[in-house]
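This section describes the prediction task in plain terms. A model, or a person checking by hand, is given the sequence of a single protein chain and must write out its three-dimensional structure as a string of C-alpha cells. No templates, partner chains or ligands are provided. The sample shown here is typical of the held-out split.
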Amino acid sequence: MRIAILSRKKSLYSTKRLIEAAEARGHSVRVLDHLHCFMDITSDKPSIHYKTEEFDPHEFDAVIPRIGASVTFYGTAVVRQFEMMNVYSVNESVAISRSRDKLRSLQLLSRKNIGIPATAFAHSPDDIDGLLREVGGTPCVIKLLEGTQGIGVVLAETKKAAESVIQAFMGLKSNILVQEFIAEAGGADLRCFVVGGKVIAAMQRQAPEGEFRSNIHRGGSATLVKLTAAERRTAANAAKAMGLNVCGVDLLRSDRGPLVMEVNSSPGLEGIEKATGKDIAGLIIEFIESNAAPKKNKTKGRG
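The expected answer:
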C-alpha cells in the first residue's frame, strides 16, 4: 500500500513509529507537511499540490492525519481534499473537527448518554453564581475552548478565584467551559487508546505533586493500568460518538463511574507505547490494511 502521513515533521516520535511500522509491513510511506499543501477544488478533478508537485489521485491508498490543534482548520481542509479524491482517511475530516471543538464534542457525548463532568458554558454570564452552581460550586475547573495539552486550564479553589478567572477570560473575549472538579480522581486520568472501535491499550497518567493536570507535557507520569468493563465501554462509545477510528479517550474515575474529559483525534504514541510495551503504531497500520479502500470514507469530503 501507499500511505501518506500528514505531519509537520518526520522526526516526531509518533510519525517515526508509523513510518517504521508501515515499512516493516512492506508499505511505502511519504510524510507530507499539510501546511505546505495547496488544493485545486475544481469539481471535475480535485487535486492536491505539495510544494511544486501535484499528486495523481491514485498515488495514495490511505492517509493518516496527524493534525495539530493549532492548525485544525487548514489541516482538516487538506484531509477533506484527500477524501474528495477518494483516498481513504484513517480519521475523517468531519470527525477530527468534531473532536477538536470541546463544546461540540461534549454536547455529542451528552446526547449519547456518555458520562462527562457537569459542564456549563456561557458567553457573557450575568449570573456567575448560577454558572458555578450548575457545576456544583467550587473547586471547579475553568477551560479555554481553544486550549490543548493542559494549557488554558485553571483550577479555581474558591468562589472568589473562580469569579476572577471567569471575568479575566471574558475580558479577553475568550470562550470558556466551567466544569466540576472530580476530587476523587486524585490528579490522575486514564488515556484509553482506541483503534477500530476497540480499546487496544490504556495507561494511567498521574499529575506531579502540587499539580492537578496529568498531561505528560506538564510533567505527569504514565503507568500501565487495567480498565474495568465500564471504562472500556465508555471509551469505545466516546470514539464512536466522535466518528473516530483512531483516537485517545481521556477518562476520569469518579464515584459515579467513568467520565470522559476529552477525545483526542491525534493522540501521541510515545507515552502509551512506553507505558504498555505495545506496538500501537503496528496496530494502526494493521487497521489500515483491513479497512483502506477507495470510496470507503463515509463523508466523502462532504463534511
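For orientation: The chain has nine helices and 16 strands.
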